[in-house]
Write a structure and sequence with these properties.
The protein has about 475 residues and is an alpha+beta fold. The protein has 10 helices and 7 strands. Strand 1 and strand 2 form a beta hairpin. Helix 5 packs antiparallel against helix 6, helix 5 packs antiparallel against helix 10 and helix 7 packs antiparallel against helix 9.
């Protein structure tokens, strides 16, 4: 009895051990499945986050100050962004699906007691203990695992897309706030200049050399500039709130005045960037992974329609026979069983194959549509970027220097009486508008470049730009 029980225990242990591993009927895992590369680069390296436990004391937590650079703001946003953290946790969840889908079904343990003991020659059978393990058709677990791996890789690319989106949002908010601060500075300088004009007009008016119309006109211009300055002051809290939202900080958190942001211009054409995006845009790459996921699901659906195998061991507890002299009296029988699941109802398996095939075709078409959309967006963003750069150079290198030269000439002419005050005022107003347009174009250039970086999926090649008279912005 002890020998038989030991044999049964060994058989049950074998079934249990096998049940915790992949199917012995499966083909050997290839390198893809054995490594389980749930990130496209197979490194598993990812940035730290304030939300994750592994961001310990040894991690340099980004901080912001009045001297912070745009890169500091980007690092802070990526570290604290709930959108980036949500995308990361989605990847973690998808990665945890891999070991679930490559595992065998759990072994099944059966215990039964005979309500009416079965009398046999060797004694009454009292109870029955059994353990069984099912094995899917060879290759099924591998295909399921492949699908999970592709899904996890797609979620990792979604994480990368979230980082790019947060970076674009942050850079855009920085440029908008920098524009407001620059426009405020320009307007304030022009307001001071116009007030000096008013002082001159008042002095001339007192001695009878100036006209009331000139004094009224300069006061109207002063009122308009004061209104514009008040509007800019009112706008700043809204842009500060937008930047703080991208940083995941309270919307009223103080942000120092943003100085001049570095300006760069794309060194590649729109067609070249669109071609680059087809191999680096995380959204497109994620859809490629989803296509392969559905392909693996199609293979798995076909294998689902093939039989499963079940191996079991049963141990029957048997009492002593009435005549103990009978050979094998009280020996406990051991039963090895083999089962087969017969997938008889074919329609559900065929439907599963058609479902996964349709999903694969749908994702393929979605990928094609997304590629077309990204291509068009890159062309538009590239135009907006290069057009903004053209406007910056036009205003900084041509129009503003000419307007300053004209203003100086008008001032000299006004002092000698050769130029009217209205002509001087028009020149001053033109210089103000040119300076504001140059600041607006610079912000547009930076925002369009950030959008290009997101669409391409990586920093696009850039070159330093000359915004002013031979002055190169790094």
């Amino acid at each position: 009895m002890n020998t038989r029980f030991a044999a049964c225990a060994a058989g049950a242990a074998w079934v249990g051990v096998v049940g915790g591993c992949s199917s012995p009927l499966d083909a050997p895992h290839n390198e893809l499945r054995s490594i389980v590369p749930i990130t496209p680069d197979e490194t598993g390296v990812h940035p730290t986050s304030a939300f994750r436990d592994e961001a310990g004391d040894d991690v340099a937590v980004p901080e912001l100050s009045a001297s912070s650079t745009p890169d500091d703001y980007v690092r802070y946003a990526l570290y604290h962004s709930p959108a980036v953290e949500a995308a990361y946790q989605k990847w973690v969840a998808a990665a945890e699906r891999v070991p679930q889908l490559r595992a065998l079904p759990d072994p099944r343990l059966n215990v039964g007691f005979f309500a009416d003991e079965v009398e046999t020659r060797t004694g009454p059978q009292k109870a029955r203990l059994g353990v069984s393990q099912s094995f899917p058709w060879p290759g099924l677990l591998a295909r399921r695992e492949d699908a999970a791996v592709f899904a996890a890789r797609a979620e990792w690319l979604g994480f990368e897309a979230a980082r790019l989106a947060v970076t674009e949002r942050l850079v855009g908010a920085l440029h908008e706030l920098a524009y407001v601060d620059e426009a405020t500075r320009i307007t304030r300088e022009n307001l001071d200049l116009l007030r000096s004009f008013e002082g001159v007009i008042r002095a001339r008016y007192r001695v009878g050399e100036g006209s009331h119309a000139e004094l009224t006109r300069v006061q109207v211009e002063l009122g308009q500039l004061e209104d514009r300055l008040a509007q800019l002051h009112g706008m700043r809290p809204a842009y500060v709130a937008e930047l703080n939202a991208a940083l995941n900080r309270p919307t009223n958190a103080e942000i120092a005045s943003i100085g001049a942001l570095p300006g760069r211009v794309a060194a590649a054409g729109g067609t070249e960037l669109a071609e680059l995006a087809r191999s680096s845009n995380p959204r497109l790459l994620a859809l490629d992974e989803h296509v392969e996921e559905q392909r693996s699901k199609s293979d798995a659906a076909r294998l689902e329609g093939l039989p499963d195998f079940t191996i079991g061991v049963d141990y029957i507890v048997t009492g002593e026979a009435m005549n103990r002299s009978i050979p094998e009296s009280g020996d406990d029988p051991i039963l090895l069983s083999f089962g087969l699941r017969v997938p008889l109802w074919r329609e559900k398996y065929d439907a599963a194959v058609r479902e996964s095939t349709a999903m694969r075709l749908a994702v393929s078409r979605e990928r094609q549509d997304e590629a077309n959309r990204i291509d068009a967006e890159i062309q538009r963003a590239w135009f907006e970027h290069t057009d903004a750069d053209r406007r910056v150079r036009l205003y900084r290198q041509t129009l503003i220097p000419k307007a300053e030269e004209s203003l100086n000439a008008s001032l000299a002419g006004y002092r000698t009486g050769e130029t009217s005050f209205l002509e001087l005022l028009d020149t001053q107003r033109a210089l103000l508008e040119f300076a504001l347009e140059a600041a607006r174009a610079k912000a547009d250039r930076g925002e369009a470049l950030a959008r290009l970086n997101r669409l391409v999926g990586q920093p696009v090649p850039t070159a330093p730009v000359a915004d002013g008279e031979g002055k190169v912005t790094p």
